[in-house]
What does this fold into?
Amino acid sequence: MKSVHGSFTSSTLCLAFACMLLGVMSNQLARAQAAPAPIGTWANQSEGLVVQQNGACAFLFNGKVTSSGTCKWENPSAKGGVLDLQYPMPLAPGHVYWSVVWVNQTTITVNGDVFYKQGNTSQPGQGNLVQ
It folds into this structure.
């Protein structure tokens, strides 16, 4: 009976270790499949969003800048993420958060509003936006 108990414990440990490895591997796989930051110039009829590779970004309404600062791409998933625009304020930086969802290579939604890529549309979201 002792050998069965010892074998069961070893099997249990092996199974636990295998599950742990699978969890680590799936976590790495999920990160590899995260949506890229929406780098480029995006617009619809009244709004615009400019996100540069160095993290500089601006939001425009009717052609006028309403917010500008440094953007960070946060919580990326397979379909999108959160664009956090940080702007200077006297005591602490201010933040504007936008939910971004990739529709296809030339279309995103920003808080539900549809935006279309302007200019070069060959490669979506290339570069390393500050993360």
Notes: Residues 1-33 form one domain. The chain has one helix and eight strands. The chain has two domains: 1-33, 40-118.
